[in-house]
């Protein structure tokens, strides 16, 4: 059976208690799965990146210190880490150093995204956005401020983390070549199939669109000519090699006329 996704990434949500990690998970579309054996709950969601389906398995561990052993076990197999703090709680932001140290010890080099939760309570802000951006830049992380209540920047933060994880694992080249074509490129391809470079000027289109179509048609025709020329040269070489091998096999010599 065909898979429902192209890539599977394990993501870990870390942060202090009451920073809203469950709020982030509850805002995702897919159904969650609770683990009955520990305090960690995971939820799966699928995002689309350049035509590739990336399935994220997001694990939420409790922020209490007595569950650090659980975090250590789950961080070893994680491909991405989201550090969550509450913008209305300065203490949750100050505790990020402890979580960052724990993650770097057991999952070094894993891509990380810093997320400031509860942006809808910005009038109670205790952590400035510039301060969070400086902290993220210093630790080589992307930075987002999100709001599960308004469904703001949640999907974007997961997409950025997935992009960083795919780039780290060397998969960026694979899904870049198969990216979904833009509507403009699809229209240009359809027009160029039914006309040529010389009849583009007669089309009832704006000059800027005609210029883009001419360049697109020339590029496409050059690529096609290159492919045809290469195919012709390969066929010619193959024909010569076949004739030479036939002469050698049957001991055929060219006749000569003595005048």
UniProtKB/TrEMBL annotation:
<protein>
    <recommendedName>
        <fullName>SOCS box domain-containing protein</fullName>
    </recommendedName>
</protein>
<dbReference type="Pfam" id="PF00071">
    <property type="entry name" value="Ras"/>
</dbReference>
<dbReference type="Pfam" id="PF07525">
    <property type="entry name" value="SOCS_box"/>
</dbReference>
<dbReference type="InterPro" id="IPR036036">
    <property type="entry name" value="SOCS_box-like_dom_sf"/>
</dbReference>
<comment type="similarity">
    <text>Belongs to the small GTPase superfamily. Rab family.</text>
</comment>
<dbReference type="InterPro" id="IPR001496">
    <property type="entry name" value="SOCS_box"/>
</dbReference>
<keyword id="KW-0449">Lipoprotein</keyword>
<dbReference type="InterPro" id="IPR050305">
    <property type="entry name" value="Small_GTPase_Rab"/>
</dbReference>
<dbReference type="GO" id="GO:0046872">
    <property type="term" value="F:metal ion binding"/>
</dbReference>
<dbReference type="InterPro" id="IPR005225">
    <property type="entry name" value="Small_GTP-bd"/>
</dbReference>
<dbReference type="InterPro" id="IPR027417">
    <property type="entry name" value="P-loop_NTPase"/>
</dbReference>
<feature type="domain" description="SOCS box">
    <location>
        <begin position="170"/>
        <end position="219"/>
    </location>
</feature>
<keyword id="KW-0636">Prenylation</keyword>
<keyword id="KW-0564">Palmitate</keyword>
<keyword id="KW-0547">Nucleotide-binding</keyword>
<dbReference type="GO" id="GO:0003924">
    <property type="term" value="F:GTPase activity"/>
</dbReference>
<dbReference type="GO" id="GO:0005525">
    <property type="term" value="F:GTP binding"/>
</dbReference>
<keyword id="KW-0342">GTP-binding</keyword>
<dbReference type="GO" id="GO:0035556">
    <property type="term" value="P:intracellular signal transduction"/>
</dbReference>
<dbReference type="InterPro" id="IPR001806">
    <property type="entry name" value="Small_GTPase"/>
</dbReference>
<keyword id="KW-0460">Magnesium</keyword>
<keyword id="KW-0479">Metal-binding</keyword>
